[in-house]
Amino acid sequence: MMKSLLCWPEPVIRVQSLSASGILEIPERYIKSPSHRPSLNNDVSQPQEVDVPVIDFQNLFSSEQGLCDEALRCVHNACLEWGFFQVVNHGVSHELMKRTSEVWHEFFNLPLEEKQKYANTPATYEGYGSRVGVEKGASLDWSDYFFLLLMPLSLVNQNKWPATPASCRELVAEYGGEVVRLGGKLMKVLSMNLGLEEDSLLNAFGGEENVGACLRVNYYPKCPQPDLALGLSPHSDPGGLTILLPDENVAGLQVCKNDSWITVKPVPNAFIINIGDQIQVLSNAIYQSVEHRVIVNSNEDRVSLALFYNPKSDLLLKPCEKLLTKDRPALYKPMTYDEYRLTIRTKGPCGKKQVESLKSIRQSD
Ligand code: OGA
Ligand code: NI
């Protein structure tokens, strides 16, 4: 298995180059089977009535008990019902968010040769990439990305981050620091809502110094046949929590809710938060990761910054003892995140198949 992760199974094609070539029909590899195409479950003539909850994060730390309790309850319900929510007043500088997003727009607008210096391999995925998964002949998504490590500090190598634009490394380091801090606060909020000590989830992830964090900047070029393709196929995030800065001007993220796809409307200056598979494991499925995907359009490119807040990769993760009862024993066997993420890194996005298979292993023990 490790050997197959050393190189890509076929020549890498940059989706941005395909898009820029002016083709009117997308290559076969990007055409989804009819049941996976975006238009099917998505009747645009029917405006959606529901939307992902928006939380005022500041209220969670209010000295006014009523406000604080109400905000905690909102987060809890969002975790139970959606696995997704947006946060405003989250404490991260809006100016920094804007500048970091802009610098990545600039990076993707650099000439191809400049970006190719950072071409990645499936060995670590760090750098400039155009696919996830190494299966030859697999269906591909309409996006390129840049993936880099932010935490733990011992694994950070800024030489692998873009040297141009000149401010990129500094901005990414500052942005990473602030968003990781927000991730730590979210972990406390989720712990309290689960009835655990406030440091429980964070400690299970290895503690503040040891958690993993990485940034995946997604670039979704405009697509001449958006009804046939997806920017990112349905998946749940394998890690702990995801803190997404979506494109201010272009929607695209869709969340699966009651078997239909809801397009998230980004609130200005908000982050979109979602539960990953490892929180599902630790909470023994009280909180569950939720499938999501990205649609593309023919008019505009879209850039999003996904910061993944993950466990220390060599720790064994299993459901918290305190959440186990006789009626609801542990649903998942212990596994390290290193082992867990090999599946998505090999097979690419597969909905919620992986975390669900972990469950069935345990139940048939
Ligand atoms: C991801 C993801 C959503 C988006 O990177 O895992 O779900 O809007 N991104 O780009
Ligand atoms: Ni995701």
What are the salient characteristics of this protein?
four-stranded antiparallel sheet, globular, binds nickel (II) ion, 9 helices, Jelly Rolls, binds N-oxalylglycine
Explain what the structure shows:
It holds the Pfam family 2OG-FeII_Oxy. One of its GO terms (molecular function) is L-ascorbic acid binding. It comes from Salix dunnii. This is Fe2OG dioxygenase domain-containing protein. Belongs to the iron/ascorbate-dependent oxidoreductase family. This protein is an alpha+beta fold. It has one domain (36-42, 55-358): Jelly Rolls (Sandwich), CATH 2.60.120. It is 28% helix and 18% strand. The chain is built from nine helices and 14 strands. It has helices at 15-20, 65-81, 94-108, 112-116, 168-193, 200-204, 277-282, 337-347, 353-363; strands at 54-56, 84-88, 127-129, 144-151, 212-220, 232-235, 241-245, 253-257, 260-263, 271-275, 292-294, 302-310, 316-317, 335-336. Strands 1-2-10-7-12-5-4-3 form an eight-stranded mixed beta sheet. The chain has a four-stranded antiparallel beta sheet with strand order 6-11-8-9, with no helix packed on it. A hairpin with a 2-residue loop joins strand 8 (253-257) and strand 9. The mean pLDDT is 94. Bound molecules: N-oxalylglycine and nickel (II) ion. Nickel (II) ion is lined by residues 235, 237, 242, 292.
Strand order of the largest sheet: 1-2-10-7-12-5-4-3
CATH class: Mainly Beta
> Which word captures the global form?
globular
Ligand list = N-oxalylglycine, nickel (II) ion
Number of helices: 9
Radius of gyration: 20 Å
Mean pLDDT: 94
CATH architecture annotation: Sandwich
User: Which stretches are low in confidence, meaning pLDDT under 50 for 5 or more residues running?
Assistant: none
Distance between the termini: 25 Å
Strand content: 15-25%
Supply the number of structural domains. 1
CATH overall fold name: Jelly Rolls
Count of strand segments: 14
Portion in helices: 25-40%
Order of helices and strands: HEHEHHEEHHEEEEEEHEEEEHH
Largest sheet: 8 strands, mixed
How would you classify the helix and strand content by structural class? alpha+beta
Family: Belongs to the iron/ascorbate-dependent oxidoreductase family.
InterPro entries: DIOX_N, IPNS-like_FE2OG_OXY, IPNS-like_sf, Oxoglu/Fe-dep_dioxygenase_dom, Plant_2OG-oxidoreductases
Domain Fe2OG dioxygenase: 210-311
Catalytic activity: jasmonate + 2-oxoglutarate + O2 = (1R,2R)-12-hydroxyjasmonate + succinate + CO2
